[in-house]
């Protein structure tokens, strides 16, 4: 029985605001004893696209509630239900407990500079290291063993959940969402592309070897000039990297819980979104 529920949406999206308010009204009408609160909710109902869902995961990851997505965006691959005509029926199933929980792996990136940790970030989809306006030389190692050299725009480390997002756009492999692994995919590398799947209990290390320092990019929050950037998911913790920086990436103990209403939803999503037959 659900007792505490939170509704999350972005105020700059009229469709999300509309469905956020409709959902709140529906809950108050049908389940008046349910407390709508952002503190320690059992379920977070997200009205928005995949970007909003990723924001909700970051915001609520400490209480780790079940994430239930109503797609009001464009892709909606992470959403529990995508068609607006099905929203209220899906909410009924949610409150009746008629759903299964899919647990998705997160990864954590730690940036070390001159031997000191300067940053830590978590991602559900991917961590990317790239020079958007130039080239960067990177060394990739797995468990301390040199594995790959990249001379191009950069590299990303994605999860199975993120395999259908930026990783897919960069021609990385699609991986079943219940497989706990990391995917190494080059971004515009000047070598033969060799995306690789790494077991979940390994640690990936990426070292920034060299790049031309021009400072063509400025980070909005700080105004600091940048060339090579590291970011997680939807621009989370965007930070400039320097030569010699070492990024260590591994899985986190935390598994994010998503509500799924039907089996085979992943394959249905592939068919609907990518035209797979």
Core attributes:
single chain; 277 residues; alpha+beta; Rossmann fold; Tumour Suppressor Smad4; 2 domains; 15-stranded mixed β-sheet; two-stranded antiparallel sheet; 5 helices; 17 strands; 43% strand; elongated; NADP
Which SSEs are present, and which pair or pack?
Elements: E1 4-9, H1 14-30, E2 35-36, E3 43-48, H2 50-60, E4 66-71, H3 87-96, E5 100-113, E6 116-123, E7 126-130, E8 136-142, E9 145-159, H4 166-169, E10 181-189, E11 196-199, E12 204-211, E13 217-218, E14 225-226, E15 228-232, E16 236-241, E17 246-260, H5 265-274
Parallel strand pairs: 1-2, 1-3, 3-4, 4-17
Antiparallel strand pairs: 5-6, 5-17, 7-9, 7-15, 8-9, 8-12, 9-10, 10-11, 12-17, 13-14, 15-16
Structure description:
It is a single chain. The chain is α+β, with helices and mostly antiparallel strands and 277 residues long. The chain folds into 2 domains: 4-99 and 261-274, Rossmann fold; 106-253, Probable inorganic polyphosphate/atp-NAD kinase, domain 2 (Tumour Suppressor Smad4, Sandwich), CATH 2.60.200.30. The chain has 5 helices and 17 strands. Helix 1 (14-30) links the parallel strand 1 and strand 2. The mean pLDDT is 92. GO terms for molecular function: ATP binding; metal ion binding; NAD binding; NAD+ kinase activity.
